[in-house]
Write a structure and sequence with these properties.
The protein has about 250 residues and is of the alpha/beta class. It folds into two domains: about 35 residues; about 200 residues, Lambda Exonuclease, Chain A, CATH 3.90.320. Strands 1, 2, 3, 4, 5 and 6 form a six-stranded mixed beta sheet that branches. Strand 3 and strand 4 form a beta hairpin. Helix 4 packs across helix 5. The longest helix is centred in the first third of the chain and has 34 residues. Bound molecules: iron/sulfur cluster.
């Protein structure tokens, strides 16, 4: 009896070790795959299209303190976003009866600044006369059902539309929990494009003058989520507390 119990306990221990090892193997492999991204480097005056929606201070730090890897959770969410974009591109290509281009590159020369980079989550729908731009965004859960597109997503799409000379744009939100979608139509608007450019010009000025912009995300409740995953949070908060110390 005693011997049986001992054998049983040993069996459970062995299973526990096997489960732990398997979890470690899966988690480490997944993380390595997620981190397998091409090296990116920044040059002053050249902005990535995705920066339009980033907190201004965070973008400033990216240029001044160097690029830092996002935390593990953000990396995995970004990876899921790209994976869903690839699935959608493949589905449209295979069953949608449309001509598409994905993994497109944007290169807009605006004089003082440039917007350059690969548009990872964009699909170009090629029609007979004009193209439409589809930008794919993933969203956490249907509980946070969107009633309108997010402003900075619209600005990013407008940049792509300008570059591809498209008057029609679509923001497609894909819910990560069940792959259901919500689609918004966006008409090209030159005023919004100018606003986006001005925003980047402002950040460029802060960089050239070596002056930290205000902590935009902390001050705007719609952007506050960015602070939770910001790799420059420590520097930003130290700066804020130094300001309070002086008051
Ligand atoms: S912590 Fe928030 S406010 Fe500060 S730089 Fe990061 S995103 Fe911007």
């Amino acid at each position: 009896m005693q011997k049986d119990l001992k054998e049983q306990a040993k069996k459970f221990q062995d299973i526990e070790v096997k489960v732990k090892d398997m979890k470690k193997l899966i988690d480490n492999s997944l993380l390595s795959l997620v981190k397998e991204r091409e090296e990116k480097e920044l040059k002053v005056g050249i902005f990535w299209p995705s920066m339009i929606g980033d907190c201004m201070r965070k973008v400033y730090y990216m240029y001044k303190l160097g690029l830092r890897e996002p935390n593990e959770r953000s990396l995995k969410i970004m990876f899921l976003g790209t994976t869903i974009h690839n699935i959608l591109s493949e589905a449209l290509q295979k069953y949608g009866n449309v001509n598409i281009k994905s993994e497109v590159e944007v290169d807009l020369d605006l004089g003082v600044i440039k917007i350059h980079g690969r548009a990872d989550n964009v699909i170009l729908l090629e029609g007979d006369k004009a193209s439409s731009v589809i930008e794919v965004k993933t969203i956490s859960s249907r509980k946070s059902m969107l009633l309108a597109p997010k402003f900075y997503h619209v600005l990013q799409l407008i940049i792509y539309m300008k570059y591809f000379n498209a008057s029609d744009g679509y923001l497609v939100y894909v819910y990560r929990d069940d792959l259901s979608t919500k689609v918004f139509y966006i008409n090209y608007d030159e005023g919004l494009f100018n606003y986006a450019v001005q925003r980047l010009m402002n950040i460029h000025k802060y960089i050239l003058e070596d002056k930290e912009p205000p902590p935009e995300a902390k001050l705007d409740e719609n952007m506050q989520w960015q602070c939770h995953t910001c790799p420059y949070r420590r520097e930003c908060e130290e700066k804020i507390s130094r300001i309070f110390e002086k008051v």
